[in-house]
Amino acid sequence: MLLSVSDLVPTLKEYTTLLRCPRIQGHKAYVRPASLPTFTKKLVQITGMSEQWVVAHVQQKGNSKCISWAILRDLILTHPDVKKRVDILDLSIYGMVVFPKALGHIDEAVADLFDRLGKNTPVPAILAETIRSLNACRRAGEGRFIGCAQLLLVWFHSHFWKLDKIPYRVFFEGYSLLKEVVDRLRRDDISEERWIDILQNLRKEDVMWKAPWLVPSEVLYRCGSFDWVPLPRIWGAVGYTLLLVLRQYQARQFIPATQSLAQSDFSYKGDHYKKRMREIF
């Protein structure tokens, strides 16, 4: 399978373009702070409900707290404040579509990122969770992808089957590739077995290493003393070696340095991660 021998991963620039993030956010990536307000306080602030109401509906799932989508859905339909309805809906989308963890629930880690969306771009966190989950599934040979599957699918179709589309560049400010994909007719009749067959038989000539809609710009390929870019996730951190991707674009013909790369992959558990965060960020 092509993806098992190639380090083919989405790029920050491509995800930023797909999500049309404001330029003002582009240089301020979200990094989870060492100390966070409680999940209860965050939900009180976002929903406008009382602390007693929030405490009554927060649940424990595994090693983290969460709140049921069913509870938030009812709140969206009945909340007297229209702005709060929109905020709760946005939180639900981030918790169930962009950062899904416990099925049908919104994880507590999503609340802090959502609270700071206006100040920081979520793209590195989205990309980091995508890379971590794909790597975990590849190593185990199975598993559930915990990431934004819809966004990954759009990215996926931008790189494969180059004969099925016409390359173009984005020249209009109001253009949205995601909107075009949503408006396009979908094929839901492809079985899982057919997808496996398609992926296992992909050839290098079937792959468009650079998305046709991506306008070239400067590339950040290292950070500080690292030969890669540390990406903060909402549940941990992961190292991203962009030079591996550039080599696939045939822009560089050398072996990128990856020594100690695995040490940049860790979760926000225990006390050791705070030391790693200080060392990296």
Instruction: Choose one word for the global shape.
Output: globular
Report the end-to-end length measured between terminal Cα atoms.
Answer: 35 Å
Instruction: Compute the number of helices.
Output: 13
Derived structural class: mainly alpha
Identify the strand order in the major beta sheet. Answer: 1-2-3
Could you tell me the radius of gyration in angstroms?
Answer: 20 Å
Residues in helix, %: 40-55%
The helix-strand sequence is HHHHEEHHEHHHHHEEHEH
Description:
With 281 residues, this protein is mostly helical. It folds into 2 domains: 1-24 and 122-183 and 195-281, no CATH class; 39-115, no CATH class. It contains 13 helices and 6 strands. The strands form 2 sheets. The protein has a 3-stranded antiparallel sheet. The chain has a 3-stranded antiparallel sheet with strand order 4-5-6, covered by helices on one side. β4 and β5 form a beta hairpin. α3 crosses α7 and α5 runs antiparallel to α6. The longest helix has 18 residues, at 123-140. The radius of gyration is 20 Å and the shape is globular. The two termini are 35 Å apart. The model is unreliable at 1-8 (pLDDT under 50). This is DUF7745 domain-containing protein. Residues 8-275 form the DUF7745 domain.
List keywords for this structure.
281 residues, 6 strands, disordered N terminus, 3-stranded antiparallel sheet, mainly alpha, 2 domains, DUF7745 domain-containing protein, DUF7745
How would you summarize what this structure contains?
The protein is mostly helical and 281 residues long.
Layout of secondary structure:
Layout: H1 2-5, H2 12-19, H3 39-47, H4 51-57, E1 58-61, E2 64-68, H5 69-78, H6 82-98, E3 105-107, H7 108-115, H8 123-140, H9 149-157, H10 177-183, H11 192-200, E4 229-232, E5 236-240, H12 242-248, E6 266-267, H13 272-280
Antiparallel strand pairs: 1-2, 2-3, 4-5, 5-6
Helix pairs in contact: 3-7, 5-6
